[in-house]
Design a protein that fits this description.
Radius of gyration: 17 Å
Strand order of the largest sheet: 1-2-3-4-5-6-7-8
Number of helices: 8
Number of strands: 8
Bound molecules: zinc ion
Helix content: 25-40%
Strand content: 15-25%
Distance between the termini: 36 Å
Order of helices and strands: EHEHEHEHEHEHEEHH
Length: 266
């Protein structure tokens, strides 16, 4: 039976072709069912997945995954949380960044919630911005209790022409606006389904500047909060955006996918 005009259901989700712009399928949480999770996503309406590496091994694993699956792309980076644990060799990262299936550099930025070593984080962040400029690929920015410091670095650095995205955004519009002014897009995860504060900027950020992501295995949207997240669940993020903006799910899917294709050259 056809569901009559319920704009918040997924009548044509399988044809929606969403892009999960931020996944960590290489993480151990997918050790037992990685290929099934990927299959579920592609069969359920996810067009492409960008898998984000957070250290050297994870970034190489992301590239391997991208080599194995046509519709998985990779992003490579030493995450601000991981800068203490490994030495950053710029030459190695530049080579990795040049790989044809690497579409972004990140996630990089600052995380002052988990780590306080500001100088080390800054050194790696700046080096990765330089690499992004050298290979002309957009940045995926991680900002945790560090918007002011990140905005300061970004506004004083040469940036790649397509700039990039602030991922897992959950602050208010005044913060989003500053990143938008620098030419960045804003990406939302399942946490916008948790409470209104995290979703407060969605209404005001133009749809043309929004992308969706899971950040899986973390940030599972309602009704799966607390469970392992996976790329298929990106539909709940698009659904929430549609609900907040009072548009159809199809429109939210179509525009966010268009934005991701444009930013990452897909
Ligand atoms: Zn992430």
């Amino acid at each position: 039976m056809l569901v009559k005009e319920n704009k918040f259901s997924f009548p044509s989700f399988a044809a929606a072709r969403l892009i999960d712009t931020h996944a960590h399928l290489n993480f151990k949480e997918f050790g037992k069912d990685r290929s099934q999770a990927i299959k579920r996503a592609f069969e359920g309406g996810v067009e492409k997945i960008i898998n984000v590496g957070t250290n050297l091994k994870g970034s190489k694993d992301s590239v391997s995954l991208a080599e194995k699956y046509k519709n998985i792309l990779a992003s490579v980076s030493l995450h601000p949380i991981d800068v203490e644990d490994e030495k950053f060799d710029k030459k190695v990262w530049l080579e990795l960044a040049k790989h044809q299936k690497v579409v972004a550099i990140g996630e990089t930025g600052f995380d002052f919630f988990h780590r306080s070593d500001k100088e080390k984080q800054k050194e790696v962040f700046k080096a990765l911005i330089e690499i992004a400029c050298q290979v002309e690929k957009p940045l995926i920015i991680h900002s945790r209790e560090a918007d002011k410091e990140i905005l300061d670095i970004l506004s004083h650095s040469k940036l790649p022409s397509k700039r990039g995205v602030i991922h897992c955004f959950g602050r208010d519009y005044n913060v989003a606006k500053k990143f938008l002014e620098l030419g960045f897009l804003i990406s939302y995860t399942g946490n916008i389904t948790y409470n209104i504060e995290r979703a407060s900027s969605v209404l005001k950020v133009p749809l043309e500047k929004i992308m969706v992501e899971t950040d899986c295995p973390f940030m599972a949207p309602l009704p799966f909060r607390g469970k392992r997240n996976e790329p298929l669940f990106v539909k709940y993020v698009a659904k929430e955006i549609a609900k907040i903006k009072n548009i159809t799910f199809e429109e939210a899917a179509k525009i966010t996918t268009k934005n991701a294709r444009k930013l990452f050259g897909l």
